[in-house]
From TrEMBL:
Protein's cellular compartments: Membrane
Species this protein is from: Hyaloscypha bicolor E
One Pfam family linked to the record: UbiA
Membrane topology field: Multi-pass membrane protein
Gene Ontology CC annotations of this record: membrane
Keywords from the UniProt entry: Membrane, Transmembrane, Transmembrane helix
Transmembrane segments: 262-280
Cross-referenced InterPro entries: Prenyltransferase_related, UbiA_prenyltransferase
Transmembrane is among the record's keywords: yes
Name this protein carries in UniProt: UbiA prenyltransferase
Length: 315
């Protein structure tokens, strides 16, 4: 959609107020593509951490019912912080250009809101999210996410160097996991212990080395905005072979970190092998999208290893 068309649409929207359902759908579209990559995994990470007892938290006797009662707070914390990142990212001109190719259904390229309106929403949302984090927990993680959002979007850390992009993404993932976990643990009565931060470091290493699965499906739009992702810098084939190797490696190393038994290796290794095979032999856009979804599932299985370890130790 052209700039003049968006300005006309903005004037129309001001003169013809939309229903609450229209605005709710707009909010959903802004965060839609990251629900599977952020909200689901962060929530699962949070509950796995909380249920792992003294392996990762200061609460040695977690209660499943109490944790379920905290689920709305966990979802609120995760979604509101994701909302900040998505608004900051999608309002930028290069992002609008990229989304017009890769994700034309998003709120700005589809004409539901303008970049200016997204910026206004961002200015209002930041203090609201900060205040809510002070109340329900995860304030340090929320502050870290806002800094990482600024570095990634406004300073261009996501565009100019693929390694910096990977590090920034990894820190973002673990910040989401840490903040959601604090809420799930029942902050301020309980929180993560020191061992949890070693575990977060392992997850950061995993994501740093495998996040390129996210970029395989976006190569056309990334080339348009001159973004230096791994498949664009190193080539599609080289990235596929390297990605297949590292996901197989981490499918074994992460269960080894927790000293899992044979069963603990099975699901990560099986999913890792499927993903490795798909990325090498199924190279269409649709296949890459599905492979990335499987990567999200694989990462989630790693998130669950601590609670599996805790349950096995309790038997």
């Amino acid at each position: 959609m052209e700039k003049d068309d968006l300005e006309v649409l903005a004037m129309y929207n001001e003169e013809h107020p939309r229903s609450i359902f229209y605005h709710l759908k707009t909010a959903y579209l802004i965060t839609r593509s990251d629900i599977k990559t952020t909200i689901y995994p962060a929530t699962i990470f949070a509950f796995s951490s909380a249920l792992s007892g003294d392996l990762l938290t200061t609460n040695s006797t977690p209660n499943i019912v109490t944790l379920l009662l905290r689920l709305p707070s966990v979802l609120l914390w995760t979604w509101s912080n994701l909302w900040i990142f998505n608004l900051a990212n999608q309002r930028l001109p290069n992002s609008v250009l990229e989304d017009s190719i890769n994700k034309p259904w998003r709120a700005i390229p589809s004409g539901r809101i303008t970049s200016t309106q997204a910026r206004h929403l961002l200015l209002v949302s930041i203090p609201v999210v900060c205040l809510s984090s002070l109340y329900i927990g995860g304030r340090e993680a929320s502050a870290a996410l806002m800094i990482l959002t600024w570095v990634y979007n406004d300073l261009g850390a996501g565009d100019e160097n693929f390694f910096v992009r990977h590090i920034n993404n990894a820190l973002g993932f673990v910040s989401f996991g840490a903040g959601a976990s604090q809420v799930a643990c029942g902050y301020p009565d309980h929180t993560l212990n020191q061992d949890a931060y070693w575990w977060l470091g392992v997850i950061a290493a995993v994501i740093t080395c495998t996040i390129q699965f996210q970029d395989m499906e976006d190569q056309e739009g990334d080339r348009l905005r001159n973004r230096k992702t791994l498949p664009i810098v190193c080539g599609d084939d080289s990235t596929r072979w390297g990605s297949a190797a590292v996901i197989l490696l981490f499918s074994l190393l992460v269960p080894a970190f927790w000293r899992m038994g044979t069963v603990g290796y099975c699901l990560p290794a099986l999913l890792g092998a499927v993903i490795a095979g798909r990325t090498l032999f199924l190279k269409t856009l649709a296949s890459d999208k599905q492979t990335f979804r499987l990567w999200c599932l694989w990462l989630t299985t790693l998130y669950c290893l601590p609670v599996v370890k805790h349950q096995n130790a309790s038997l």
